[in-house]
UniProtKB/TrEMBL annotation:
One of its GO terms (cellular component) is plasma membrane. This is Multidrug efflux pump. Pfam families: MatE (PF01554). NCBIfam families: matE. It comes from Acetobacterium woodii (strain ATCC 29683 / DSM 1030 / JCM 2381 / KCTC 1655 / WB1). The gene is matE4. The chain crosses the membrane at residues 21-43, 55-80, 100-118, 138-155, 167-188, 200-221, 247-269, 289-311, 323-343, 363-384, 391-413, 419-441. Keywords: Cell membrane, Membrane, Transmembrane, Transmembrane helix, Transport. CDD domains: MATE_yoeA_like (cd13138). GO terms for molecular function: antiporter activity; xenobiotic transmembrane transporter activity.
């Protein structure tokens, strides 16, 4: 089989390849984040701060599900990129088959366990009795949505592994528009549709995810019908699963640490009442928006790095690092500036209550400065991940969240809620410093040409 499918990222201009790869991811990620942003806008304006609070306390659990989706599928993407760069299509097919087979098992376990444990998890997060019924019903629907979420992540990771980022974007555009239109109809009950309140927002998101997944499946089957990126059967092959686990488990733990960090922060914020938790929930939606350009570039640098290693061209990595940072600067700088200087305008888009807006203003003025660190550490983390060293990005996150953010927030929250915001900014800076140190020390280069032997 000749190399007639996908996009070879080991040839041509590095900045051009980065932009072509990362831009659809950026747009798609912004639109994916728009799922929750749209929910928050409708919920905040139609249902009030209790409903916003219910969404906010459910968010750490949702982040945990995202961590699992992202960790497992990141491993798939890295392994596919290396196999694709090396033109090893037997290995590529084996990775695809095992990834789909693992997906079925993971989805069953998460949905079954999640529905059983939803209320205990919310209690653990300190959810107040006033919003518990709302939060539990909303969370249960979000947990059911895990199936579509995981499949959509897996489809995107396979396509991105071969350099195809445009189709995941198109699927996301369609599903986001569907979500935006359906949200208010199900929340308020328009025409024959029932009035579902907060549950309507969750159901709209669920249906939108199903739409994106189905569209992706149809495209991949028709476009790549005779290529090794479609599953050809159920397969649980030990060597391949271990290779996926070796890369995916640290990434999952890393993102779980982010979720845990957010959950513990929620506990500290809860001390300041429902107004504070509503403001924090909205501000974290903004965090997600700001991170989107940096995450897109991280995925781009990881893909270019993995394909370059697979093709035996590691000399390109230094240039990938340089251009990743250069491209990141203007977008993140503009967003950070807007958050610091126009926080009231931004918060007013999401909620009407003056007390919630004031807490959010304090958050954005402080944490907005820390967004500038995203310019750098997402790029260096992308290269480290692309080289298959996901264990070390996990360690970097552990230090930042568990040894810096949580202890500092515990101490500084005794002074004021702004102490929590300062702890978050300091943890961003620690992440950047540690990531750069590991990158420049060059230890991530060790064993980068050791392609896993997945074909017996």
């Amino acid at each position: 089989m000749n190399n007639q499918f996908g996009k070879d990222l080991t040839t041509g201009s590095i900045p051009k390849n980065l932009i072509k790869f990362a831009l659809p991811i950026l747009i798609g990620n912004l639109l994916s984040t728009a799922y929750s942003i749209i929910d928050t806008i409708w919920v905040g304006n139609m249902l009030g701060k209790e409903a916003v609070g219910a969404v906010a306390v459910s968010f750490p659990i949702f982040l945990g599900m995202i961590a699992l989706c992202s960790g497992a599928t990141l491993a798939t993407s890295i392994l596919i990129s290396k196999a694709y760069g090396a033109k090893d299509y037997d290995t590529l097919q084996k990775i695809v088959n095992n990834s789909w087979s693992m997906a079925g098992v993971i989805i069953f376990v998460v949905i079954t366990g999640g529905l059983f444990l939803s209320e205990p998890m919310l209690k653990l997060l300190g959810t107040s009795a006033e919003i518990m019924p709302l939060a539990k019903e909303y969370l249960n629907i979000i947990i059911i949505n895990f199936a579509g979420l995981y499949f959509s992540y897996l489809l995107s990771s396979i396509l991105r592994g071969i350099g195809d980022t445009m189709i995941p974007l198109i699927c996301t555009i369609i599903s986001t528009c569907f979500n935006a239109a359906l949200d208010p109809l199900l929340i308020m009950g328009v025409g024959p549709l029932p009035r579902l309140g907060l549950n309507g927002a969750a159901i709209a998101t669920l249906l939108s995810t199903v739409v994106a997944t189905i569209l992706g499946l149809i495209y991949m089957y028709r476009k790549y019908k005779k290529r090794p990126i479609n599953p050809t059967g159920i397969c649980f092959e030990r060597t391949t699963i271990l290779a996926i686990g070796k890369l995916g488990l640290p990434s999952f733990i890393q993102q779980m640490l982010v979720s845990i960090g957010y959950a513990v922060t929620i506990i500290f914020v809860n001390r300041f009442g429902d107004t504070a938790i509503a403001a924090f929930g909205i501000a974290n939606k903004l965090d997600a928006i700001v991170a989107m350009p940096a995450i897109a570039m991280m995925m781009g640098t990881a893909a270019l790095t993995a394909q370059s290693i697979g093709a035996g061209e590691p000399e390109r990595i230094k240039t990938i690092f340089k251009w990743g940072i250069i491209i990141n600067v203007p977008i993140i700088l503009i967003i950070s500036t807007a958050c610091v200087f126009f926080p009231e305008t931004i918060m007013s888009l999401f909620v009407k209550e003056t007390d919630v807006i004031q807490v959010g203003i304090g958050y954005l003025k402080i944490v907005g400065v820390g967004y500038l660190t995203y310019i750098v550490f997402y790029v260096s983390n992308g290269i480290i991940n692309g080289a298959g060293q996901t264990f070390f990005t996990m360690i970097i996150s552990f230090i930042s969240l568990c040894l810096v953010r949580i202890p500092l927030a515990a101490v500084l929250s005794n002074i004021s809620i702004r102490g929590i915001w300062y702890a978050i900014v300091i943890s961003f800076a620690v992440t950047m410093i540690n990531s750069l140190l590991y990158y420049f020390l060059g230890r991530w280069r060790k064993g980068i040409f050791e392609q896993p032997k997945l074909v017996n």
